[in-house]
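Human: Here is a favour to ask of a fellow structure person. Comparing notes only helps if you start from a blank page. I am asking you to supply a protein in sequence and structure-token form. Write it directly below this note and I will take it from there.

Assistant:
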Amino acid sequence: MTDFFDFSIDPRSGNSLGMFSRGHILWLLAALTAWLMLCRRYKRCTSARRVRMRRTIAGSALVIELLRSLLLMLAGEYGIGRLPLHLCALAIYISFLHALRGGELTGQFLYAFCMPGAVCALLFPDWSGYPAFHVMSVSSFALHILLVGYTLMLVAGGDLHPDTRRAPACLGIMLLIAVPVSIFDRLTGTNYMFLNWPSPGSPLEWFAFLGRPGYLLGYLPLLAAAWAVIYAPFIKNRRAG
């Protein structure tokens, strides 16, 4: 159990989880199971219970994030590279705010950017260098599963209707967030939102030949592909209606 909280473990060590290893695939299967269960239960809930469920899921993600930050602080491992400036870290607070206050545009942003970002993080985790049974691995998988599950259950329950007409506004919000984060990255040498260099093993590496910051152009086809997948069913349904 002491190894579970050992932050001195060197990522990329011999006992690391590894990308698309057996442990990683098991986590992905667990994620699919959790999402199906969340969506099924949410659809059956009354309006009052849906409110409680939204707050429980979003609140659980926030508690995990805060507890992990506290553990890192106690271990002396919380530095400038641990700030909540990655998209998924910001999504935790956005989801919690949405669970408390709602908001159509907030929900659309969760669907357009936060959900696909969290799915990509699960597929290409930048924490795969840690052992499978380590607080960083377990908490990271749990957080991203909850983030995706929160948005999916809203869609499954009909409380969120993905709308391509709101996508430009969502893109504008994303740019408003990304620009100051990019400046912060350049000033501090950090890599929040992977705006300074591609995340190892991620599709962004396909565009590394463009150099820095040229590889950032890779976000355009990747975003277009993601949106084509997640919006296609709703465009079809809208036309049918």
In short: Helices lie at 22-44, 47-74, 87-101, 104-123, 135-156, 167-188, 219-240. The first helix runs from residue 22 to 44. The chain has a mean pLDDT of 92. The two ends are 55 Å apart (CA to CA).
